[in-house]
Amino acid sequence: MKTLSAICLIAFLGLNLLLMGCTKEGLKQTETEGPKGSESDPYVIGPEDVLQVEVWREKSLSGNVPVRSDGKISMPFINEIQAAGLTPLQLQESLTEKLKDFIDSPHVFVVVAEANSSKVYVSGQVRNPGVFKLRAQTTLLQLIPMAGGFTDWANQKKIQVIRKEDGRENRFRANYKKMVEGKEPVLILKPGDTVIVP
Fold first, then answer.
1. Which of 43, 90, 92, 124, CA to CA, is 20 to 30 A from 174?
2. Rounded distance, CA 49 to CA 186, Å?
């Protein structure tokens, strides 16, 4: 009886150790696969956004701050700091470091009050051409209905997308009909894209 109990105990401990090993491996994979901050804080600040910056117990340093066209914000004590290209969490950490020279143990919170930088431009043969703000990840298939749909003369097979990346302008064609049919990957739009429907 004692031998059976000992075997059961060893088997139980062995199974637990095996499961713990699997869990640790799973955590390691998750940490290395995803980009930093992608799950908790994916939004990247851009020009024209409005940020709500709160510094605990410092009303003079708290309030809404616009991101200028050069991507910087202005605040008392630290003057200018780069905001565009950072997530709110990254900016929060930068502001905390800068304010340490003036405040003991500063607690800074950054929230995007207005996401004005995430927009795309649509022109050509759509019923409502114009500028559209992206509130979430948006595809070309979602954008066209936002623009009122195609006109009767639209060439859905030769939509042109202009995208600026790394200071260069890239142009490529998108076939809306093939995307609808699942014959072509659905195009995910990026802030600043210009979509031209011939």
1. 43
2. 28
pLDDT, tens only, 7-24? 444 444 444 444 444 433
Same domain, 110 and 125: no
CA contacts within 13 A on the Cβ side of 121 = 11
Count Cβ atoms below 10 Å from residue 38 Cβ, excluding itself.
Answer: 10
Residue 12: inside a domain, yes or no?
no
- DSSP symbol at 59: G
Residue 152 to residue 84: CA distance in whole angstroms? 40
CA dihedral sign, ordered 65, 67, 68, 71: positive
Would you call 56 helix, strand, or coil by DSSP?
coil
Residue 16 in 3-state DSSP?
helix
Residue range 82-140, pLDDT digits in tens? 999 999 999 999 999 999 999 999 999 999 999 888 899 999 999 999 999 887 889 99
Asked if residue 129 belongs to a domain, the reply is yes
Q: Is residue 101 part of a domain?
A: yes
Token pair for 195: 């979509």
Number of domains in the chain: 2
Domain assignment of residue 148, given as a range: 119-197
DSSP 18-72: HHHHHHHHHHHHHHHHSPTTTTT------TT-EEEEEETT-GGG-EEEEPPTTSE
